[in-house]
Design a protein that fits this description.
Helix content of chain C: 25-40%
CATH class of the largest domain in chain C: Alpha Beta
Radius of gyration of chain B: 19 Å
Chains: A alpha+beta (755), B alpha+beta (290), C alpha+beta (161)
Order of helices and strands of chain C: EEHEEEHHHH
Helix content of chain B: 25-40%
CATH class of the largest domain in chain B: Alpha Beta
Largest interface: A-C, 56 and 51 residues
Largest sheet of chain B: 5 strands, antiparallel
Oligomer: heterotrimer
Distance between the termini of chain B: 51 Å
CATH architecture of the largest domain in chain C: Roll
Structural class of chain C: alpha+beta
CATH topology of the largest domain in chain B: Uridine Diphospho-n-acetylenolpyruvylglucosamine Reductase, domain 3
Shape of chain B: globular
Radius of gyration of chain C: 16 Å
Strand content of chain C: 15-25%
CATH architecture of the largest domain in chain B: 2-Layer Sandwich
Structural class of chain B: alpha+beta
CATH superfamily of the largest domain in chain C: Beta-grasp domain
Chain lengths: 755, 290, 161
């Protein structure tokens, strides 16, 4: 399908601001009378707070105030608002601390230096309690309880099941079981957590912050501060990355707000990079047990998975990650029977939460690694075993989802073609593959919002330019541009005719925000609906003015309102707008749109698919892996913003490959050992492989112009592809992430011993 | 936050040495500051007086003559060394090493003197300079002396510099004919410091036996060290796979690495063996062609 | 604490400031002169978000003492644009989608400019090495490499409109 704007090379509309240094992020915000805040953090993984004495700090010249949990309403908050038992976090706790780095107090002063000096002057008396760090240790009877009354530290359980598992295993001709350990990962946004909060005498709070969801922040802040939502305004014009770590309430936002409410002055808190590592939440580490049964011909019969996740000290988004990992562990294949049991375990460590992929990268790593081994042992081609079992259009994941569009088979074919074209590889080189499928936003409303999930308003001004108000949040993924493109295409104008308003709860409609890869589909649908509404109103006037035969339709394309059957007969869009407004008593034409998924299964209204091939080189003497090439065939339905999609793919590869072999957050006694960018390793330009993307276009009926997500799903396959590449290159498997050189060498030694 | 200090800018060596002699242990020298500033910001180091020698241009030079060899002034930046045609021609191992030292931004401002004074056992220049039989000329208000790289490092992050002394110059002798050198660090990100590193310099008799060998190990002990037993194995010998194995094993036995989050002790030892073999072989090949 | 006089030329404009000598160059640029285009992303000289150009050399502003730049010329991202006319590297970034969240972008642009000024015909390998000091979490670097490569190949000759 060819469109004027959809799927054309379009410049990101925030481009000029970002390349000229004009874009102002939270850290760049300066307000009159602004104070600088810093947070005092717990040095203990588990301790009762006996007393906090801030007198010496308050006596320091330049210090304006200190707050602790006692200055708050003590609300236990969480993003799962529908389930109060999962709202377990007081950001400034009153009674005890549960992880090293947890906020205990916050201070505001006239300079950052004074605020930092003040931290050393706050005396906290703790009663240290026994702590537990490992999920498998924490579920033991004798383990200390992180939260009172939560037996065995089991925070959440999830269960997914279909088919007769025992029967399916009975019918299997080959059964295999494996244990895996998936690591955590830091979001490592270039912009650390930050907020400027300003509370004024009229009882209104404005918070500039780096967030993926201004609406969530608004609602959560109102909840913890005892305010009405509408008296809280959250502004996020430019956000320096989110990746799943910035849609929960964090210490910067909360402490800055509490301080500002006490002092009636703006307070800015910006996390140092070290704080960002130790005190902003991370990807969920998981222990995975997988048992799989297949027929000799490769037909997938039964899969059973048991997962324990290291939840850290609070629920955060971990409940969703627990569910999604179990769901996507079955993807993208048809299983006769499937059973998943997930247990999220509290530990005295940094809470684990959502991170791009939301449990699916872990799921894919385990699943695909095992599938390759099964294929090899049965002597079945690794592409064939995936193709024969892969999802297809209209497949129903029993009780969970209906797949309305699926380009998986085409993706497998394209990647198979590419791999074959590489021919025979030199020694110590291998190409690994991995399939994936992912959601385009979730159907869940655990936030318990009464609002539509996405809303949009299109306003046409007298000069024909359009103001598009959306609640979806631009965090770098290009949603402002994508919405502008959808609006322009639907309305029949150009992207440069659209001005997008986002990132301000006072000016924009509510939207759940940028997570779960939901915005293109959900906010896109809302935007399309709003544009269609505005267009319909314009066309009413056009029809009246042009007076065509009743059998003719009108449409607008590229600023030209015309008869569809006779496109040369029409009126200039700008001309018509002026007249149309007069006909509406001088009122601007406004179109409203919204979207909430209804009856779309248990997870998502639509699923993207893809297959990735990763070519690596391994030095068998040192275990060092080098990434050479990465080719991805993917189905995001109708691509909307191709420059954006390509960017998402390449960014996803660097993050997901990093997860596979480089990034880790090792801890000792609950303390993160590498909270800085020297010791936490990330892929840089020289390590990035050459990349290629192959678009497989399908049409997703639920998505705007047939579009599905592209951005989070792409993070799922790379760690898996790295693992299977290692298997191809050297015949070894490392089942513990990240796949470091040392682990590779150990696996090689094991293999040599077995030989 | 950096603790306040009194700032003294030196515009000449004489002035710098004067400040040092005046303020003694209450003062610290800063040149490029690429190592020192992080320590100051983290509060690991504090000083009453900071003597800034960044603009002491008389110490920024690269000179060479066939007799005396190479002399590089202490405030010469890494980037200058990396890009120097002279160094590329005469001591390619040095420019190759500089190319992967940290990042361009750090190399543009950081200096060879500052790097060597910082005494990080994982630093790139020290093992290479040691393998090339380099020395460091230091000066104080009382005079100058030259210290061999072999003796310059006394303990973890500690040097033989005495109170009132600062590095003035790095000296590398002219290379004997049939000499080749090689350096490599093991890392996953190419600009990272090495999990371990090995520098080898081999001089051949005629073309087939080893006249002299120097093997220096980085990040495999509290300081950069010479693997002398490994070196001894090569002396007078012809190179073959068997000898290389022995040399590697000897270096492994001589090193004393620590375990940290990046590598276990065993893995570091293993890598020392691998890289010693690789660098000796590479240096030998380069010597044959020289 | 005694303040010292710092004379610094930034984007062609001379400034005189009295500063605490422990002030970092990036603090002078962002906090004293209000040029917030340059960002800060770490405390260990690792991320490169604070990259700017001093006397033609790219440096990380967080690891340069401001006093050391006394009498020298500094260029920041704000100095690339000329009265609304974008620098070729800025145009290339926009064309190639070489930024997403934009936080690393100023640093990337300055590293790219320094690289191009020194080596206008850089190879892909040299471009990757030239950007090694700058972290990006969003783009995976390749679009940035493509943009710099396009400038090297002459696609943005400054005399073109």
């Amino acid at each position: 399908m060819k469109y004027n704007i959809i799927n054309t090379h379009t410049h990101n509309i925030d481009g000029v601001a970002k390349v000229t240094g004009r874009a102002t992020y939270t850290v760049d915000v300066t307000l009159p009378g602004m104070l600088y805040g810093r947070i005092l953090r717990s040095p203990h993984p588990h301790a009762k707070i006996i007393n906090v004495d801030a007198s010496k700090a308050l006596a320091l010249s330049g210090v304006k105030g200190v707050v602790t949990g006692k200055d708050t309403l003590g609300v236990k908050q969480g993003i799962w608002r529908r389930y109060s038992e999962l709202c377990d976090e007081q950001i400034l706790p009153l009674e005890k601390v549960r992880y090293i780095g947890e906020p205990v107090a916050a201070v505001a002063a006239i300079s950052e230096e004074i605020a930092e000096a003040a931290l050393d002057l706050i005396e906290v008396e703790y009663e240290v309690l026994p702590a537990v760090y490992d999920a498998m240790e924490a579920i033991k009877k004798e383990a200390p309880l992180v939260h009172e009354g939560v037996e065995r530290n089991i925070n959440v359980t999830r269960h997914i099941e279909w088919g007769d598992l025992e029967e399916a295993f009975e019918q299997s001709e080959y059964i295999r079981e494996d244990w895996f350990k998936c690591s955590g990962q830091a979001h490592m946004c270039m912009e650390t957590r930050s907020a400027v909060a300003s509370y004024t005498p009229e009882g209104k709070l404005t918070v500039w912050t780096s967030t993926q969801s201004p609406y969530y922040m608004q609602a959560l802040l109102a909840g913890v501060l005892g305010m009405k939502e509408s008296d809280v305004r959250v502004i996020a014009h430019y956000v320096g990355g989110g990746f799943g770590g910035k849609f929960e309430l964090d210490g910067a936002q909360f402490c800055a707000s509490v301080l500002s409410m006490k002092l009636f002055r703006p307070v800015k808190i910006v996390f140092t990079r070290e704080e960002d590592f130790i005190a902003s939440k991370r990807r969920t580490p998981m222990y995975y047990y997988v048992r799989t049964g297949v027929k000799k011909d490769g037909t997938f019969m039964a899969r059973e998975a048991r997962v324990f996740t290291e939840g850290g000290a609070y629920t955060s988004m971990g409940a969703t990650a627990l569910y999604l990992t179990g769901f996507f562990h079955s993807f993208p294949y048809k299983w006769q029977a499937y059973r998943y049991d997930g247990y999220r375990v509290y530990t005295n460590t940094l809470p684990s939460t959502s991170m791009r992929g939301f449990g699916a990268p872990q799921a894919q790593f385990c699943s695909e690694t095992q599938i390759d081994i099964i294929a090899k042992e049965l002597g079945i081609d690794r592409f064939e075993i995936r193709r024969m079992n892969g999802h297809t259009t209209n497949y129903e994941v029993p009780g969970q989802a209906t797949i309305a569009s699926c380009g998986l088979e085409q993706c497998i074919n394209k990647i198979e073609e590419w791999v074959k074209s590489r021919g025979k590889l030199p020694a110590n080189r291998g190409i690994g593959i991995s399939c994936y499928g992912f959601m385009s936003g979730g159907i869940f409303n655990w936030f318990d919002t009464p609002y539509s999930f996405s809303s949009a308003v299109v306003t046409i001004n007298c000069d024909g330019k359009v103001d598009l108000h959306v609640g979806c949040q631009e965090i770098g993924q290009g949603s402002n541009t994508t919405m502008a493109m959808i609006c322009a295409e639907e309305l029949g104008v150009r992207v440069e005719d659209i001005r997008v308003h986002s990132g301000d709860t006072a000016e924009c409609p509510p939207d759940l925000g940028a997570w779960g890869s939901r915005q293109t589909l959900m906010a896109g649908n809302a935007t399309k609906m709003a544009a269609a509404d505005a267009k319909r109103q314009l066309l009413e006037f056009a029809t009246a003015k042009m007076g065509p035969n009743i059998v003719y339709d009108l449409d607008i394309k590229d600023r030209w309102i015309h008869l569809v059957a006779r496109p040369e007969r029409g009126i200039d869009y700008f001309e018509l707008v002026k007249e149309a407004l007069r006909g509406k008593e001088g009122q601007r034409i406004m179109g409203r749109g919204y979207y909430t998924p209804h009856r779309k299964g248990m997870i998502s209204p639509a699923y993207s698919y893809g297959v990735q091939a990763l070519e690596i080189d391994v030095d068998p003497e040192t275990g060092k892996i080098s990434l050479l090439n990465c080719v991805t065939a993917h189905d995001c339905g109708q691509p909307v913003n191709p420059l954006g999609v390509h960017g998402q793919l390449e960014g996803a590869i660097s993050m997901a490959a990093g997860y596979g072999f480089l990034e880790d957050l090792p801890m000792e006694d609950g303390k993160i050992l590498n909270p800085n960018l020297v010791d936490y390793k990330l892929i840089r330009a020289p390590e990035m492989p050459e990349t290629e993307v192959i678009e497989i276009e399908t049409y997703e009926p639920e998505g705007p112009f047939g579009a599905k997500e592209a951005g989070e799903g792409l993070t799922n396959p790379t760690a898996a592809a790295l693992s299977t590449a290692l298997y191809e290159a050297l015949g070894i498997t490392v089942k513990q992430l990240p796949i470091t050189p040392e682990k590779v060498l150990n696996a090689l030694r094991e293999k040599a011993k077995e030989a | 936050m950096i603790k306040d200090f009194k700032y003294l800018r030196a515009s000449s060596v004489k002035e710098a040495l004067g400040f040092l002699s005046q303020h003694k242990e209450e003062s610290k020298i800063i040149c490029g500051g690429q190592s020192l500033l992080i320590l100051l910001r983290q509060g690991l180091v504090a000083t009453e007086y900071l003597i800034d020698i960044k603009q002491v241009n008389e110490l920024s030079y690269i000179d060479f003559d066939a007799k005396k060899g190479l002399r590089m002034g202490a405030t010469t930046t890494h980037r200058t060394i990396e890009k120097s045609d002279l160094i590329k021609k005469k001591y390619k191992v040095l420019s190759d090493m500089e190319r992967y030292l940290a990042h361009i931004q750090v190399r543009n401002w950081g200096t060879i003197g500052g790097n060597l004074a910082h005494a990080d056992p994982a630093g790139d220049p020290a093992p290479v300079l040691m393998a090339l039989s380099g020395s460091i000329k230091v000066g104080s208000a009382k005079g100058e002396r030259t210290i061999s790289l072999d003796d310059f490092y006394t303990d973890l992050f500690e040097t033989a510099l005495e109170e009132g002394e600062m590095i003035l110059e790095v000296q590398v002798p002219a290379l004997a004919p049939k000499t080749g050198a090689a350096y490599k660090k093991f890392n996953i990100l190419e600009s990272d410091q090495g999990i371990i590193s090995v520098a080898a310099c081999v001089t051949l008799n005629g073309g087939s036996t080893c006249k002299e060998a120097r093997i220096c190990l980085g990040n495999a002990a509290p300081t950069v060290i010479r693997a002398k037993q490994a070196e001894a194995k090569l002396k007078g010998q012809k190179l073959d796979e068997g000898l290389l194995e022995e040399v590697g094993l000897a270096a492994v036995a001589e090193c004393d690495p620590v375990a940290d989050i990046h590598a276990s002790e065993d893995f570091r030892r293993h890598l020392v063996g691998i890289f010693t073999k690789r660098m000796v072989k590479q240096a030998w090949e380069a010597a044959k062609k020289a | 604490m005694e303040r010292h006089l710092l004379r610094i030329t930034v984007n062609g404009q001379e400034h005189e400031l009295y500063i605490n000598p422990k002030t970092l160059l990036v603090e002078v640029i962002r906090d004293h002169l209000g040029l917030t285009g340059t960002k800060r992303g770490c405390e260990t000289v690792s991320c490169g978000a604070c990259t700017m150009i001093v006397e033609g050399m790219s440096v990380k502003g967080c690891s340069v003492l401001a006093m050391q730049v006394d009498g020298l010329k500094v260029t920041t991202v704000e100095g690339l644009e000329d009265h609304g006319k974008l620098h070729p590297i800025q145009k290339a970034f926009i064309d190639h989608g070489s930024y997403q969240c934009g936080f690393c972008t100023s640093g990337m642009l300055m590293s790219s400019k320094a690289l191009l000024d020194e080596n206008p015909k850089a190879t892909i390998k040299e471009i990757r090495e030239g950007l090694d000091g700058n972290l990006c979490r969003c783009t995976g670097y390749n679009s940035i490499v493509r943009a710099v490569d396009a400038v090297c190949k002459g696609q943005y000759r400054e005399d073109e409109a």
